[in-house]
Write a structure and sequence with these properties.
This protein is mainly beta. It has no helices and 11 strands. It is globular, with a radius of gyration of 13 Å.
Length: 121
């Protein structure tokens, strides 16, 4: 069973930046797509970014042009660089491996604790 640990969240003003990290317990991101999800209070968890084994990145419409996902296979880690943050980005952010499809779905049903991002002035 793969475990994920997310970090890097915090309180930031609108327009600010954060860099989130997700470390997996095994080298899963070397073999499959990795992704970042977020869940705001009262909202459904949504996929915001993913990166394939070959390095192809895709983003949800709400974060395109502002977020960038990257991967370091040697560290079993996926990153999410978040720029030009908006209050609507406020959520707990989670990572997981993905089963590619339309839509992509989480590969594992056990989630980490997530890392909380709060965008507020």
């Amino acid at each position: 069973q793969v475990q994920f640990v997310e970090s890097g969240g915090g309180l930031v003003q609108p327009g600010g930046s954060l860099r989130l990290s997700c470390t997996a317990s095994v080298s899963v991101f070397s073999f499959v797509t990795g992704g970042w999800f977020r869940q705001a209070p009262g909202k459904q968890r949504e996929l915001v970014a993913k990166i394939t084994r070959g390095g192809t990145a895709n983003y949800g419409d709400s974060v395109k042009g502002r977020f960038a996902i990257s991967r370091d296979n040697a560290k079993n880690t996926v990153y999410l660089q978040m720029n030009s943050l908006k209050p609507e980005d406020t959520a707990v952010y989670y990572c997981n491996a993905l089963i590619d499809g339309i839509p992509p779905t989480p590969m594992y049903d056990s989630w980490g604790q997530g890392t909380r991002v709060t965008v507020s002035s």
